[in-house]
Fold this sequence. Notes:
Layout (H helix, E strand, L loop, with lengths): L1 E3 L1 H15 L15 E3 L5 E4 L10 E3 L19 E3 L19 E3 L7 E2 L10 E3 L12 E2 L1 H7 L5 E3 L19 E3 L8 H8 L7 E3 L11 H8 L5 E2 L2 E2 L2 H22 L4 H7 L5 H14 L30 E5 L2 E4 L18 H4 L8
Parallel strand pairs: 1-3, 2-4, 4-5, 5-6, 6-8, 7-9, 8-10, 10-11, 11-12, 12-13
Antiparallel strand pairs: 13-14, 15-16
Helix pairs in contact: 3-4, 4-5, 6-7
Amino acid sequence: MVKLTTDIVERKCSQILTSKSLSKTIKKDELWKLTHLYMNDMFISSIGNITTYRSLKVLYLQNNNISKIKNLHFAYNLTHLYLQHNTITKMENLESLENLQKLYLGHNNIIVVEGLENAKKLQELHIESQKIPLGESLCFEPRSAFILSMCLKVLNISENKITSLRNLIRFQELHTLNAKNNLINNVDDLTATISTLISLKDLSLQGNPVTTSYRYKENLIANSVSLANLDGKIVTDICRNFMKKFKIEKYNQRIKKATKIPLGDDITNSLNLPPAFKKSISRAIFQHGPHLSITINPESLSVESQLHVFPPWKSASGIRSTKDNHITPRPFWNNVIKNKEIHLTRSHANNKAIALPLI
């Protein structure tokens, strides 16, 4: 059981200086200027009073046995906090970390993302691979989720038995999301969430059941605004535009099938008829039903509109002979009347000499 105190910090700093140079010694009066503190792999079980180091910006506490986050109220200048590979069960006592930008909590025992109401500058949250009990999954407390939706840019929630990403709706600044190896299986629910992430560029969902759904990638690409990388594969603007057009076309076809055209409109629209005649046909169909029959009275037809009756070709007058028991029609050229040649003869008057007057 090792507790993080100022003595432990001084001893650690002294070891670091000694490893670099034997002639250098630590000055305790200058320790308050520390900005980076490396206390990883020190078997630390709890955080004690280290309020002396108010200038801390980066604190490394990974690979220890810390079970509770506490005594960090002094670290209002802290921007990076590394607490992965510990035994932390709850996110608490983080209210004073108003300048925190990166928080690493992977490989702990956390079930609820909470206590981040004042972390308005947090840009990266890594909370992957939590030891979650059977039947539970990682979830987000609403107040913390609201704050994170306005500032968080990178989120790693892989291997947390998550079944839905609805907690991430309208995370408007999020551009990198790692949700590998979870239990997400509803493609419609996933698509609805991704469509609200307007800044999302990199999405990783490998190892989820939803990746085996029909046209899983096509649906995500078509509904995303700025997705550039999906499961490690680049998504080009041409691909995104094609998927969006394909989605619109499918939607239009679905709407077209859902809206049925009335019988009268369907028939009359397919005919090239005057408007008045279309209305009369539609009215007759609805009055008489589908067994409507239209009869034509030959007497009412005009001379120009009467039907022409053509006799069978065997009885035509042009046929005049048979050959080998086959009726042969008369050649058409026999009907051609040969014009008699008109021979012009010169008259005797033309042979007479014409007398010209004297000049």
